[in-house]
Amino acid sequence: MRRTPPLVAVVVLGLAVPACGTDVPEPTVAGAPGQELDATTIPELQERMTAGELTAVELAETYLGRIEVLDDDLGAVLRVNQDALADAEESDRVRAVSGPRSAMEGIPVLLKDNIDTAGLPTTAGSRALLGSEPDDATITRRLRAAGAVLIGKANLSEWAYFRSGAGTSGWSAVGGQTDNPYVLDRNPCGSSSGSAVGVAASLAQVAVGTETDGSIVCPAATTGVVGLKPTLGLVSRDGIVPISAEQDTAGPIARHVVDAAILLSVLAGSDPADPATAQIPAELDGDFPGLEPAALEGARIGVWRLTTGQSEAVDDGTEAVYERAVKELEAAGATTVDVRLPYQREIAEGATPALLAEFHRDVDAYLAATPGDHPADLAGLVEFNDQDGAELEHFGQELFEQALAAPVPAEDPAVAELRATIRDLARRSVDEVLAQGPGAEDDLDAIVGLTGTPAWITRYVDEDGAGDEFVYSTSTPAAVAGYPSVTVPAGFAGPEEALPVGISFIGTRWRDADLLDLAAAFEAAHPARRPPEFLPTVG
Description:
CATH topology: Amidase signature (AS) enzymes
Strand content: 5-15%
Largest sheet: 11 strands, mixed
Number of helices: 17
Number of strands: 17
CATH class: Alpha Beta
Strand order of the largest sheet: 3-6-4-9-11-10-16-17-15-12-13
Oligomer: single chain
CATH superfamily: Amidase signature (AS) domain
């Protein structure tokens, strides 16, 4: 379908307009010919800006230029911030007068379009929210205060992929379809699709996504970048269009683990508007960017093995990537222990009924609290979609209808009981595996799993008879438990080995910093990422 072009007015400096797959603009840092944008980290950018070799304005112009010439083929950026260059100018002024406010000073960031942003639309991809007028979410305010440059809003799977069980990832009625930059007819997966694609294609240095179950780690893995789903409560959920307060969290997406850690250091923190953040331990290690490069030496890692049935479903090339990654962990000094996580069937059976009731409660509360011209509640959203031809163009809204029929948790104690049961099972599924023996020396530091399978061809159920082709995932235990997980590029598989594959490190509550250490050590030992080539198709 046709793209909804981003609103952008910027001079493209030194970049040729491409035909994707043939003449992609040179991804270099402004003022530094030959320095690859894809490989450049936030610390390197900060060093250059401090030395006066680069300005925030030049960096923003570089990224805005790439959006201008690439995004019509990618559909990752739903709207460009018209004040981005002015914000970059202010960042340069602050740096000159008093020094950088944080390690994010002057760094361009994409925000998923379910994160409230004053002055920019926050639609969750739905035409029903085009008249919404929210204030900044807490994390948006934190980014502005840190000196980050909000370069735009990223497209997403509409309503964070909670409108239809037969939907297509990366599609929204507002933004159209987001495509995978490695192979353009392939899907980006998950609801934070525009955030991941924007980072993978160097349309922004970093991005913020959100996850209820898989919506950060799946698109990050499928587009060859790093994605962290934090511990629930580490990052404020205030001002984020919800699925469920019991599982939702925002988190960083980046090309490098250090950049994800730096972004997390700005996003994380207590917030009176979100009671979950009051549970952050006072002694929590918040030095997320202080990564330990030798974290795998002496570490004990549980390797989540596929069942026979799962192995038959997952292609051999993807399994080979996973096996090589495990060998790299061992070569870097880790001891690996084969594991399987229990209770997965029980967790999966309870998750959707709980989410349906919680969505009914939480989306009604969000709409009631958000100014602007939009439906007042879920019933109004269902009615709007029925009357708007574009909304139901490719698939239906059966999850909306089921959620509308579901009782809100306050009216049905069984919902709260179900949530408590599956949360307990999910936490036990991780914690019991981590506790491997009678002594602390037998415990595991983390569990590693195959994040998912390579990107599938993008299809729509109304046109093709099928939508997304999810085959395998390890996101659910951490998602339902509220525990952290981080995915890191591990290699390539699929036709012509053109499609990225990631592995995930999963840990217990509040161990986000430890997982980032392990992810950074793996990234250093096994640098698997390569920039996308924007191929039209493969195989």
